[in-house]
Design a protein that fits this description.
Layout: E1 6-12, E2 18-23, E3 26-32, H1 37-46, H2 48-65, E4 73-76, E5 79-83, H3 96-109, H4 111-125, E6 131-135, E7 142-144, E8 149-153, H5 161-173, H6 182-191, H7 195-203, H8 206-210
The structure holds zinc ion (ZN).
The site of zinc ion has 3 residues, from loops.
Length: about 210
């Protein structure tokens, strides 16, 4: 391990041992009352590689998200498109929620590009969509209703194009399967062969999704 992970051990009334990573430097083991310290030690050792991997992932995520400043810049396709202060006169003097409101409004003016991309991919795949609407959510990037309405989180404007496409293919595939069963993923894969990799990449943009504008 290239950095120290502190492990806190708690014994409680439970049946199995679990190990959870709290953050990049801290983990917790919950063990049944009857389990010996030796056994706990072995358990932690067997999870060492997993811990190191997950911890590294957390650190990478943090450093990646820190390369973005969502109040300083307008991002399109994962890149700085312009300075946030260009959005409105006196922008930098406004309180944060007023700035966020203006940014949201600006991003929504760009929503038609996302809509166009969705229409284009619908035509290419033959998977139908009637209406495309912007979605305000800190939980999901998109959704698709049985009335063939697709809602796309407008924050998708900020992420790279390949990730926008993955979400659109995903939502379009819901026109055939309204679930996430294997047939559904097979259809996603047909149009988006590297979807697994893209899903991981999109996870890096979780901080965008979770930002409230
Ligand atoms: Zn889905």
């Amino acid at each position: 391990m290239n950095h120290e992970i502190k492990i806190k051990i708690t014994k409680e009334k439970r049946k199995t041992m679990v190990l959870k990573l709290v953050d990049a430097e801290n983990a917790i083991v919950k063990a049944p009352l009857s389990v010996s310290d030796k056994r706990i030690g072995e358990f932690v050792k067997s999870k060492e590689q997993w811990l190191a991997k997950m911890s590294k992932r957390m650190i990478d995520y943090k450093s990646f998200s820190q390369t973005f400043d969502l109040l300083k810049n307008v991002y399109v396709d994962g890149l700085v498109a312009m300075k946030a202060e260009e959005v409105a006169i006196g922008f930098s003097k406004l309180p944060e929620d007023a700035q966020k409101k203006l940014l949201r409004k600006h991003y929504l003016t760009l929503f038609s590009s996302l809509e166009n991309l969705a229409r284009e991919l619908s035509e290419k795949t033959g998977l139908p969509v009637k209406e495309i609407k912007p979605l305000d959510s800190v939980r999901v990037w998109g959704c698709y209703s049985n009335k063939k309405q697709m809602k796309l989180n407008w924050k998708l404007i900020l992420v790279p194009k390949e990730l926008k496409e993955y979400i659109i293919y995903h939502e379009l595939s819901h026109s055939v399967y309204m679930n996430h069963k294997p047939q559904f993923w097979a259809l996603v894969e047909k149009w988006c062969p590297n979807y697994k990799e893209l899903k991981k990449k999109l996870n890096q943009y979780d901080f965008v999704l979770k930002t409230t504008f």
